Amino acid sequence: MHFHRVAFAARDPISLCEFYAETLGFAAVPGSQRSVTAGETTVWFELGDTDPGHFAVTADADINSVVAWLDDHDIDILETDEGPSIRFEFMEADSVYFEDPEGNVVEYVCYDGQSSGEFDPETDLVGVTEVGLVARDVDAFVAALTDALDVDVWSDFGEGSVVFVGDQTARFVVAAEGRPWYPTDTPATVVPVSVQCDATGTFEPEGLPHGVNVDQ
């Protein structure tokens, strides 16, 4: 699966977009003050009163070089259980986390065997690989999501309080409402998220501000 476009709500979308373009090195979209690109994915920020969410981006570089780059650019790296980065054997990858100016928990994922060496955001941001979706009933939500999009559960944690739906390339991280976004104490809350991806079908759960492959 691949994410082509992801939209998040932001209290100040223009300033947040500037952070991603000017500080993190995402590519600016000509003529837009609210969208940037990370490899194959366009990230769009829409005006809205919202709480922090989570998404991850694949970085085609060595994890230590990504950590060093973030540190050199005065990004406060979040401490994990293993230090500034953490190993996920089931993903065959290492991750580093930080927060953007609106408190969203951002993750850079570095997969084994795909590293080009020293990190350069201009060339090494491959695309969005995780999008957080918050549900009040995770089991029911996942069942509806997998049925609507014809995708599978990849992995789950914490007795089903977090479920990965998709694959190594791209996945939805379905989290139970109130469960903290790792590695912070920030509780997952239901916030608007819309996604355009290459999965089959559409998904627009009743009573939740999420939409996948839904005309916006």
From TrEMBL:
Protein name: VOC domain-containing protein
Origin: domain of life: Archaea
Gene3D superfamilies cross-referenced by the UniProt entry: 2,3-Dihydroxybiphenyl 1,2-Dioxygenase, domain 1
Native source species: Haloferax larsenii
Matches recorded under InterPro entries: Glyas_Bleomycin-R_OHBP_Dase
